[in-house]
Amino acid sequence: MITKRTWVNGLRNGIETIWELAKVVVPVTLVITVLKETGWLAMAADWLEPLMSLLGLPGEAALALVMGYFVNVYSAIAAILVLDLTIKQVTVIAVMVGICHNLFLESAVTSKTGVKPLPIAALRIGVSLLAGLGVNWLY
User: Fold this and answer.
1) What would the 3-class secondary structure string for the chain be?
2) Chain centroid offset of residue 55 CA
3) What is the pLDDT of residues 13-62, one digit of tens each?
4) Whole-angstrom Cα distance, residue 12 to residue 17?
5) Considering only Cβ atoms within 10 Å of each terminal Cβ, which end of the chain, N or C, has fewer?
6) What are the angstrom distances between the C-alpha of 130 and each of 51, 82, 85, 93, 125?
7) How crowded is residue 118: how many other Cβ atoms within 10 Å of its Cβ?
8) Residue 113 confidence (pLDDT)
9) What does each C-alpha distance from 120 to 25, 70, 106, 108 come to in angstroms?
10) Contact 32, 79 (CB under 8 A)
11) Nearest by Cα to 99 from 65, 75, 124, 116
12) Model's pTM, two decimal places?
């Protein structure tokens, strides 16, 4: 039987989770929207288009990858929300960010285990790129 305390704890945890996500998603969405409306995102997209096209992505998608790689998964999600992407493109980004996310924090944790963080970060980026190429090719 579900008690009142269970409901209260669940509601509190839900609100805390929403707040944590909102602290990332809302500012990132706002910044990306401003970049998009001012033309800065289009300029960066044009510059990155050749590289991103290998992954089947538009140039603007680089922003979602960078946010996911260096900030966290939720910032990549916020970037994806603002961009006009296909399901295939979202899948490519999701696979890549799933493999390689939050590099700064996870590199710091890795160094605490005695492993050199730079080679591991390079490996994660490389595997992420290969997986993105694979998903784009197979999908």
Assistant:
1) CCCHHHHHHHHHHHHHHHHHHHHHHHHHHHHHHHHHHHCHHHHHHHHHHHHHHCCCCCCCHHHHHHHHHHCCHHHHHHHHHHCCCCHHHHHHHHHHHHHCCCHHHHHHHHHHCCCCHHHHHHHHHHHHHHHHHHHHHHC
2) 15
3) 999 988 877 887 788 778 878 877 888 877 877 888 898 999 999 998 99
4) 9
5) N
6) 13, 25, 20, 12, 9
7) 11
8) 87
9) 28, 14, 10, 11
10) yes
11) 124
12) 0.76
**What burial class does residue 34 get, using C-beta atoms within 10 Å of its C-beta: 0-12 exposed, 13-18 middle, 19+ buried?**
exposed
Cα(102)–Cα(117) distance, integer angstroms: 13
